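dude i think i finally got it to work??
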Amino acid sequence: MIIYDYCSNIEFEKVYNAFRIGFSDYIIKLEISKEDFMKRFFGPEGNQLEHSFIALDEGNPIGLILGGVKDYEGIRTIRCGALCVHPDYRGKEVSKNLFQLHRRAAVDNKCKQLFLEVIVGNDRAIKFYSKLGYEKVYDIKYYSIKDIDKLQGEADEAIDIEEVTFDTILNLSEEIKDIHINWQNDFDI
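look at this
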């Protein structure tokens, strides 16, 4: 029988294993140690164990939804930082049930919006979130390069690079109201 619980009530090892199993066949290879998972997904990613839920079948992790609550762009928001289900349990409403708990957490925390990011090409997830009423707001593009020797171009000598304080950047962001900073790079994270 599948049970659902707050991640804060479960040993972290099971949360980590749910993540690893659920993303085992993801379009982007997610090989991460338990320590790095904890530091990243519950640090700069802004998720919180008390706003995250796990699905267990006979004590074994089979699904996970990570959530974080904060004021984002002036609106009380819950963000889905990850939703994943063991490949053998997909299509069995585990993700739907996890999302219902996520939505309940939003209501309980007086959130006015739910927010998430999906990688282009993850059509199954996009279809799932669309059915739940999510709408695309903007595109975020991520780039990477494995071989730094392939980088072309030289630094422009006319560009001066100076250190600025965090407060300088924060003050600038308050003056410029038509900018968007993604959740992970928002000032509180």
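The chain has a mean pLDDT of 86.
im so relieved honestly
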